[in-house]
Amino acid sequence: MESTRLRLTFLALLVVSLFVLLFARLWFLQVMAGEQYAARAEGNAVRTVVLEAPRGKIVDRAGETIVRNRYAPVVSVQPDEMGEQADEVYARLSALLDKPVEDLMRRADSTRVGPFRPRPVAIDVPEDAIAYIHENGSSLFPGVYAETLPLRDYPFGALAAHVVGYLGEISQEELDSERFAGYRPGEVIGWSGVERQYEEVLRGTHGRRQLEVDPVGRVLRDLGDSPPVQGSDLVLTLDVDAQRLVEDALAEGIEVARTIPDEGEGPGRGGTFKAPAGAAVVLDPSNGDVLALASHPSFDPALFVGGISHSAWSTLQDPDNHFPLINRAIQSSYPPGSVYKIVPAGAALEEGYQSPDGLLPCPGSWEWAGQVFHNWERSDSGHMDLTRALVHSCDTVFYELARRMWTDEERELSGEDMAAVDGELPVRERLAEHSRGWGLGAATGIDLPSERGGVVPGRQWKRSYWEATRDIACAQSRQAEPGSYRRDVLSDICEDGWRWRGGDAVNMSIGQGEMQTTPLQIANAFAAVANRGILYQPRVAREVVHRDGTVEALEPDVIGEVPVRREYLDYIHRGLVGVTQDNGTAASVFADFEIPTAGKTGTAQYKPKQPIAWYAGYAPADDPRYVVVAMVEEAGGGSQSAAPIVRRIFEGLLDVDKTPIDPGEANE
Amino acid sequence: MTQLDYGNDREARLVRETVQRQWAGPYGAARNIDPLLLVAVAGLVGLGLVMIFSATHHQLELRGADPMHFVTRQLISLGIGLVALLIVAAVDYRLFRAWAPVIYAVAIIMLIITAATGTTVNASRAWIVFGGFQFQPAELAKPALILMLAALFHERREGALGMRALVDAVVLAAIPTGLILLQPDLGTAIVFVAITFGVLLLARVHVRYMIALAVIGVLSMLGAYQLNILQEYQVERLTTFFNAADADPQSAGYNVNQAIIAVGSGQFSGQGLLQGTQTSLGYVPENHTDFIFTVVGEELGFLGAALLLGLYALLLWRALRVAAMARDTLGTLIAGGVVAVFSFQLFINVGMAVGIMPVTGLPLPFVSYGGTSLIGSLIMIGLLQNVHMRRHR
């Protein structure tokens, strides 16, 4: 029997090993990996239907509603789910909604929403049609969704479109980003403006209804829901009346500019001014609040509601329409021309290159190292102080100041090989430093997305620009005809293009050359003159009103103080007042204005296009409440095209009788 | 031990037994039943009834049917099974030795009838209807084959077990196995192979014969596969198991996937009785029969699964003990065959619910819903008690 014993033991061991195997597997499945399977079991059985939360309202500083929501019955289609019945489904929808099949299919094809969302084909559908679709959904209308959705509604139409922005479906990159953690594919988010900047504030909390379903998708039980909570409301610094005033003035001023004959000579000149686009900003100099911000051409944010159609999108993207989605007040930068002169004036005073009552010659032309630079006024205007240099916008005065500063800088640099300098410059670049001190060359930090910082050029900037582009210049110089002027210039750039020459400094001193600023930066710099030194961070939103009624104030931020002492700012201020009086460059526009104002014209050459017209001013001159900047592309002189817009805006803001927008005299 | 001595002295043994019977009376042996074995069975059946309720009540309620429908039917089968257990235990198993060929023949005839006229469920013809009852003859053929093989080797217990005994055993096993393959019911057929293996092992058939048999068995399986004897769904199930990564979660691998999710989601202490969503919402098909273990795993967790396996361990320990203590080779072989059935079905059934065995469609004895399986299992417990009760000389 020993053999039987042995074999029984063997059988027993076999059984024991089976138990060991099963226990090991169960331990792994249930204890080690159990959580993961529990999650999968829940994913199996629980379907979550997201209840979209309406976004918060956007109101102006007085509480006027600029953006709100309305609940609209919307019919959407998901073509993938229609299967082979698509044609019949579209035919039935067409009969029900009384819209041609082609319209529906085109909207389904062309609406720019991602693959995860049904595409809206009809908005504001009659209730009975919605009910009919609900009743016959599965049989007659597979892939058709009829639901009531909160949609953005714009009581003022396109007003302040660039500030409020528009909505669109979240992209894959955004889904992957940290900012949008917790968002689901297909969600609609702010794409621009405060809709994007304050996305988290406005978004609200989505509700969810959880349903228990069986393997064929039948709903067995409602596991309860959490209602959606609307997002918080946003109170802007904007004033709808001022905004409308500014938008109208800008549009009208641009129309007027297009009638002005261009008397300039050279390529791209002649005819009337094209004036395709422009921007205008109104700031409160006491705190940086943006009271109005307009960019022309504009767009209607309602186009984006429910997904923008392809045709509307391509219209917005057509170069012939000058890209209306761009907010030119902050997203484009331009050479500022003479409005920049407040910076070199301050720098000359503060750095000791000029005393307040010192005089400088203002000849018609000015020569340096064999190169001749002209004034707009070709005749000699005699000697003048800096105040009058601002009043008359005398370029040659600023050339002379730039030359002195550049010469000192080069002397300080002597012996240093610029090409070998890494990191911090061994020299103070006076003008560049002052420019940055006035907030130029860096984004202001306004609470709007995609703001440009512009360019403050200098030795380092020139060198890195040269390094990035020298290969192109060198290649082009080799191709140019030997001995030609073009070849000389190009080979000079190729060899020596890193050098910050006197000519660069001279150009920079009148806001030309590589200098680039946004209209908002200019407005902010003039606000610092108006308030005598404080550079605020401009802002468009002042308060968040939470759903429980609590108000969260957004405090204004200060960027810093401009590097010019108060007495010199007073001095500059007197110059800016002079601009609007007697024989100042803007006198033709403002001489008869009953309230004293201050300002500066700018005419930035932007060859081969027509000049960019600028005007930056503030009013009332002695107690500034408003800083206004207007900029019109390809519109000639600042006094011609921009100053009249600013006058109209002052009239509206200060409640002065409105006068027609007339072109001013060309004088710089 | 001394059993062998008895075997050598047949006359004396018969006399002795007659005396003993007269002395103890026909029911004297009942005092020697194994209570722990009954505890294990009671635990498993009880657990099974609760799990069947949990697996079926929700769907029954949805259909407006009696939520106790399956539980009630299982209770009826339990009653029948207990009566059968009592009868099987009461009659001295040595009488079965003489009747084994008859019992075996009846089982074979029923299997032939099944193959010829049976009712088709899940693409296999495993059921016959008899007097208003539906049952699966294959479940009853299990104890019949155990008895037949045990009787055969008991007769040949002396001397070397030559080729002849082996061939006889293989032929006797092959007939019901083949008939069940015709249904076709691959899983149950393999159980018959396991029974044969268990009996041959304990009958001290030489190891090299058993290895040779195993090789032939594997080769014939491959042959069956090649000759397309297996039904398509069986092939699909098996290949799904071996290529789990390629399987479409919505088709052949679906059952296994959902079963694993169910078991895993129970975690350590379970989702709670009647709280398993995989179970109650019908994500695991057949979860009151072949996949009942998923209900245990989901709702009672690792603790519940351990309880079930513990009860089985108790049952198998007692069954092995019966085999070891049996008074004769017949008893040892009967107990060994029963151990083979239960341990094999346990491993295959739980193994498929946790994804380490292919889906073959075997019930979990005592726990799965299914009358014939429960009755057949209880009959085998009756056989164990029978052998145990009469272990003394």
Task: Describe the structure concisely.
The complex is a heterodimer of chains A (668) and B (393). With 668 residues, chain A is of the alpha+beta class.
SSE map:
The complex is a heterodimer of chains A (668) and B (393).
Chain A: H1 2-32, H2 34-45, E1 46-51, E2 58-59, E3 65-77, H3 79-82, H4 86-97, H5 101-110, E4 119-123, H6 127-135, H7 137-140, E5 144-153, H8 161-164, E6 167-169, H9 172-176, E7 188-190, H10 193-197, H11 199-203, E8 207-213, E9 219-226, E10 233-236, H12 240-257, E11 278-283, E12 290-296, H13 310-317, H14 342-350, E13 360-361, E14 365-368, E15 371-374, E16 383-384, H15 386-392, H16 395-413, H17 430-437, H18 459-479, H19 485-496, H20 502-509, H21 519-530, E17 534-537, E18 541-545, E19 551-553, E20 557-561, H22 566-579, H23 587-590, E21 598-606, E22 609-619, E23 626-632, H24 638-653
Parallel strand pairs in A: 2-10
Antiparallel strand pairs in A: 1-8, 2-3, 3-4, 3-5, 6-7, 8-9, 10-18, 11-12, 11-23, 13-16, 14-15, 17-20, 18-19, 21-22, 22-23
Helix pairs in contact in A: 12-24, 14-17, 15-22, 16-20, 18-19
Chain B: H1 3-8, H2 10-24, H3 35-62, H4 69-90, H5 93-117, E1 119-121, E2 124-130, E3 133-135, H6 137-155, H7 163-182, H8 186-202, H9 207-226, H10 232-242, H11 254-265, H12 277-280, H13 292-325, H14 329-353, H15 371-389
Antiparallel strand pairs in B: 1-2, 2-3
Helix pairs in contact in B: 3-4, 3-13, 4-15, 5-6, 5-7, 6-7, 6-8, 6-14, 6-15, 7-8, 8-14, 11-13, 13-14, 13-15, 14-15
- Helix and strand pattern of chain B: HHHHHEEEHHHHHHHHHH
**Percent of residues of chain B in helical segments?**
over 70%
Most residues in contact, chain pair and counts: A-B, 39 and 51 residues
With helices defined by DSSP (H or I, 4 residues minimum), what is the helix count of chain A? 24
Q: How many individual helices of chain B?
A: 15
**Global morphology of chain B:** globular
The count of β-strands of chain B is: 3
